[in-house]
Write a structure and sequence with these properties.
Blueprint (H helix, E strand, L loop, with lengths): L6 H12 L1 H9 L4 H9 L5 H7 L5 H13 L3 E6 L6 E6 L1 H20 L12
Antiparallel strand pairs: 1-2
Helix pairs in contact: 1-2, 3-6
């Protein structure tokens, strides 16, 4: 979080006003966010399932990234009924579901212009 009087904050606000793309990129920026969104779209909707799918992410970072995605209304937490202790699953909102094909297109674009490297963790169409 930037100080509201900082030059960085002012520059960020200016860029958000100039083009909505800057705002969109800010919502999904972060090393793990795109992988988290895609993984949830594939059914890995519990914290432990995300950890299993993304073994290199720390618990702290995963929790922070999930919270940021929730703050941007890309996903919501839902309680799983009849579980003890109370289970939580992550569900993509319509905003999050709309993001999935965009991420897939960006992945395809990256494959095309990064020398066609196949990255196993990348989305497949």
């Amino acid at each position: 979080m930037r100080k509201k009087q900082s030059t960085n904050f002012e520059n960020e606000q200016f860029l958000f006003q100039v083009c909505e793309l800057n705002s969109a990129i800010a919502m999904i920026s972060g090393r793990w966010k795109s992988q988290i969104v895609y993984s949830i779209s594939q059914g890995n909707n519990r914290f432990h399932l995300l950890q299993k799918e993304l073994p290199n992410i720390s618990e702290t970072v995963l929790a922070r990234q999930l919270k940021e995605l929730e703050t941007h209304a890309i996903l919501v937490k839902q309680e799983i009924p009849d579980t003890v202790p109370v289970g939580i699953k992550y569900v993509l909102t319509n905003k999050g579901l709309d993001l999935v094909p965009i991420l897939e297109s960006l992945c395809d674009w990256g494959k095309l212009y990064e020398g066609g490297k196949e990255i196993s963790a990348c989305y497949t169409s």
